[in-house]
Design brief:
Strand content: 15-25%
Distance between the termini: 48 Å
Main location: cytoplasm
Number of helices: 6
Helix content: 10-25%
Subcellular location: Cytoplasm
Oligomer: single chain
Shape: globular
Order of helices and strands: EEEEEEEEHEHEHEHEEHH
Number of strands: 13
Structural class: alpha/beta
CATH topology of the largest domain: Rossmann fold
Protein name: Small ribosomal subunit biogenesis GTPase RsgA
Keywords: Cytoplasm, GTP-binding, Hydrolase, Metal-binding, Nucleotide-binding, Ribosome biogenesis, RNA-binding, rRNA-binding, Zinc
Bound molecules: guanosine-5'-triphosphate, zinc ion
CATH class of the largest domain: Alpha Beta
GO molecular function, one term: hydrolase activity
CATH architecture of the largest domain: 3-Layer(aba) Sandwich
Radius of gyration: 21 Å
Length: about 290
């Protein structure tokens, strides 16, 4: 049997990337019974029934599963923000970071369009997130600056790009590999934001190995499935301090003798990050009320 990765599912056909070729496969009948779904990113074993056709015999165990969009075995997310145009929103960065942590993805924070602002502004941004422990890259996709360093991180992995519209996701992919199939849209002059121009959900292969998930309208900003007591786990600088709070159930909001609030007051945790924590906490509570 041969192995491959589902790169696209369409009309009960599965397109399997196997080495450098794409094999169009059906599922063996027994898989069609019961509650089963084969999704993009799944690894399969198949047998050939024609030069480029086959039948899927086996589905290998999933390493991970991303729900929105539904993709299996995603290794990491590249959170892409423009430094300016549209101006970076630090609270939006925190929201994306929290969702990525919650999704158990490795995170690469990518600050794009550094050609449009001062080096000091970029350095401050990079430092802010590096201090927390994140991997941060600053790039100018349009000029090709920093693209090699980014590509080195994507090699042999399944990556997903997320970030606000107009941040430059499509431009980055095209810079890595011309014609990766994504369209780039001009940022609307009027509102300073771009339109979502990417449409198909599938895995696009990098020539040197690895895949990127092309995601339509991947918003990445919902906290639906999150519990307020767990929110702190998605802030790498808050979770190690939490055990020092007086109350074991402390959620670092209004409780007395809270070690997290003390760390904020003493400057060990950035006040903006704590504010993002409170904002998201509040949002999770509001969502719960809605049920
Ligand atoms: N100056 C400058 N402009 C850039 C850079 N990268 C992208 N742009 C421009 O920013 C605009 C938006 O880029 P896209 O790649 O379409 O952004 P996107 O994140 O894919 O946007 P959506 O498809 O709407 O999600 C385009 O006009 C790009 O030419 C950069 O490094 N510097
Ligand atoms: Zn606390």
């Amino acid at each position: 049997m041969l192995n491959g990765i589902v790169v696209k599912a369409y009309n009960s056909y599965y397109y399997i990337q196997s080495g450098s070729k794409i094999v169009t496969c059906n599922l063996r009948g027994r898989f069609k019974k019961g509650r089963f779904s084969l999704i993009v990113g799944d690894e399969v074993a198949y047998t050939l029934t024609g030069p480029e056709e086959g039948i899927i015999e086996e589905i290998l165990p999933r390493r991970s599963m991303l729900k929105r969009p539904m993709v299996a075995n995603v290794d990491q997310v590249v959170l892409t923000f423009a430094a300016v145009n549209p101006d970076i929103s630090l609270s939006l960065v925190d929201r994306f970071l929290v969702i990525a942590e919650f999704s158990e993805l490795e995170i690469i924070l990518c600050i794009n369009k550094i050609d449009l602002t001062d080096a000091e502004v970029v350095a401050e941004l990079v430092e802010r997130y590096q201090q927390i422990g994140y991997k941060v890259l600053s790039i100018a996709a349009k000029l090709g600056t920093g693209i090699e360093q980014l590509y080195a991180q994507l090699h042999d992995k399944i990556s997903v790009f997320a970030g606000p519209s107009g941040a430059g996701k499509s431009t980055i992919l095209n810079a890595i590999q011309p014609g990766l199939g994504l369209t780039t849209g001009e940022v609307s002059q009027k509102i300073g934001r771009g339109k979502h121009t990417t449409r198909f959900a599938e895995l696009l292969p990098f020539e040197g190995g690895g895949f990127v998930v092309d995601t339509p309208g991947f918003s990445f900003t919902e906290f639906k499935d999150m519990e307020e007591a767990h929110l702190m786990d998605y802030f790498p600088e808050i979770s190690p301090i939490a055990p020092k709070c007086k109350f074991s159930t402390c959620i670092h909001y209004k409780e007395p003798q809270c070690a997290v609030k003390k760390a904020v007051a003493e400057g060990f945790i950035h006040a903006d990050r704590y504010q993002s924590y409170l904002d998201i906490l509040n949002e999770i509570r509001e969502n719960k009320k809605g049920y």
